[in-house]
Design goal:
The chain is built from 3 helices and 2 strands; from the N terminus they run ααββα. The protein has 182 residues and is mainly alpha-helical. The chain has a two-stranded antiparallel ribbon. The relative contact order is 0.05.
């Protein structure tokens, strides 16, 4: 096999193994199974309710655009132009039921879960930030307490104070606490 055919096959294999394609395949399979559930709800619940006002089969609701509308025994139109608005109504009801079930059973709970999770993560980040700030404040207090214990004019080795050079000598003309004023 040529290298071009190999790269095409490898590309196709990589495409099939991507997560999005597999997720889409799962969604199609679940959607097909879910369609049967929705159709059962329409035929078992919606159609009988509509049947209380007329016929149980919504597909039988129609109007005739060009009279007379006649059908043969197989249900095929022989003459006239029928408008099958019952079929459209049935499809719209099926869509609305499907959309409502998907929204209330899948989308809404997932969005509430994700919002709750985002609030928890924000609270954890805030606690961590507060802990970091608190730790910094405690370290500053410890530093200030250590400096206060050593007394004025005592520098920490390697640290300079105002009016001192890096070697700890006073800079003339500055107000250094360890220097006498003249």
């Amino acid at each position: 096999m040529s290298k071009e055919k190999e790269s095409v096959l490898e590309g196709f294999k990589a495409f099939l193994m991507r997560g999005n394609v597999i997720d889409l395949a799962v969604a199609v399979v679940i959607g097909a199974a879910f369609t049967n559930v929705v159709n059962s709800v329409v035929k078992g619940l919606i159609n009988p309710v509509v049947g209380a006002f007329g016929t149980q089969d919504l597909n039988k609701y129609s109007s005739c655009l060009k009279s007379p509308c006649e059908t043969n025994g197989a249900g095929e139109v022989v003459s006239g132009i029928p408008i099958m608005w019952g079929t459209v109504l049935s499809a719209v009801l099926t869509f609305l039921i499907t959309a409502a079930v998907v929204y209330f059973l899948m989308v809404l709970p997932m969005s509430k879960y994700l919002a709750r999770r985002a609030r928890q993560q924000a609270a954890e980040e805030e606690v961590q930030e507060t802990a970091d700030v608190s730790e910094l404040e405690v370290l500053k207090e410890i530093r200030d307490a250590l400096i206060a214990q050593r007394g004025p004019g005592t520098a920490v080795p390697g640290q300079t104070t105002a009016g001192q050079t890096a070697s700890g000598q006073a800079i003339p003309g500055t107000n250094n606490p360890g220097q006498a004023h003249s």
